[in-house]
Design goal:
The protein is mostly helical. The chain has a domain of 77 residues. Helices cover 60% and strands 0% of the residues. The longest helix is centred in the N-terminal third of the chain and has 46 residues.
């Protein structure tokens, strides 16, 4: 007749076996992911060697992953912000000079919320 200790031992053994199998599977997948990542780097290097801009290709790959409506929304927000900053031809906003990083930014006082910038579009032309 089996006693309670035998049941505990077999359950522990099965759980340890399952855990080991899961960990080994994850390790194999991580290795495959590393190999695929290296292959992707090689393709970008090949593209660069053929005269293509790898940074632009990465951007295109990222854009193709997105749904068209998500992409349109991002592009509209980018255009809105660029227009507000006077970065688009014919935009009515005056371009601000670049920030002077030679001076350190003021240290935030304790207990105060950090300021969050908001962009307000200028008057339409």
């Amino acid at each position: 007749m089996k006693d309670a200790d035998d049941d505990d031992f077999s359950a522990t053994t099965v759980s340890a076996g399952q855990l080991r199998a899961i960990v080994e599977r994850i390790e194999r997948l991580e290795e495959e992911k590393k190999e695929v990542s290296e292959q992707i780097k090689e393709v970008y290097a090949e593209a660069k060697g053929n005269g293509f801009d790898a940074k632009t290709i990465r951007k295109i790959v990222a854009l193709r992953k997105k749904k068209p409506e998500e992409r349109s929304e991002e592009e509209a927000m980018l255009e809105l912000y660029m227009n507000a900053l006077g970065m688009l031809p014919g935009s009515s906003a005056r371009a601000e000079p670049p920030l002077d990083w030679s001076e350190p930014l003021p240290v935030q006082q304790r207990g105060r919320k950090p300021l969050t910038p908001t962009v307000v579009p200028g008057p339409e032309a």
